[in-house]
Amino acid sequence: SLPAMFRDESAYERFVKTLSEDGCVHDFETYLSVFEDLTEYVAISATARFREDGEIAGMDGVMVNLTGKRIMEEIVTQSRDKIMAAFDALPDPVFAIDRNFYLVSVNKAFVQKYKQSFAYVMGKPCHQICCGQDVPCSEKGQRCLAAEAIDGKQPVADEVERMTVDGSEKVLEQASPVFNKDGDLTQVVIVRK
């Protein structure tokens, strides 16, 4: 029976309540025990059939198995977490920017070097956070390896002088473009030593 299939009794109660009140349920996601030792993650869409007294007599609907999708989501999450842990373990400031020079990812060393929080720096222009400037480095006549990596679509590395909020410093910088599966540049990863 359907009640016995629900792994979580409260999920079953929410399902029945929605079905009773609305007469239908769309994409209700839950775990169901399909066999004694097999649990599946599913989405249920159903329409209730009511008796004359207003109680549910039955339902018609479909159930879509989302177990594969759920497993893939968990794999992606675990992979992302492992990548971020490795990214944060690097001793040098590492950051990724989009094509418009906005920060999309930073590691712990970056946050420590520039004395800002993750929340504050995300989405800000790199020239604002790294150099204390209101315009991109190239507009101030400074060499921008990220711009070169974007234009040349290949990694660029060199020692460059960078303006900082405290003056300037020479750094070894590497800017590497990242492409999606269609070959479009999505971001540039920059490492500073």
Characterise the protein shown here.
- This protein has 193 residues and is of the alpha+beta class.
- Helix content is 34%, strand content 38%.
- It is built from seven helices and eight strands, in the order H-H-E-E-E-H-E-E-H-H-H-H-E-E-E.
- Strand 1 and strand 2 form a beta hairpin.
- The mean pLDDT is 90.
Q: What is the total tally of β strands?
A: 8
Q: Which structural category do the helix and sheet elements fall into? A: alpha+beta
H-E string: HHEEEHEEHHHHEEE
Dominant shape: elongated
Q: Classify the helix fraction into a percent range.
A: 25-40%
Cα(first) to Cα(last) distance is: 63 Å
Summed up, the helix count is: 7
Estimate what percentage of residues fall within beta strands: 35-45%
Which parts are unreliable, with pLDDT below 50 for 5 consecutive residues or more?
none
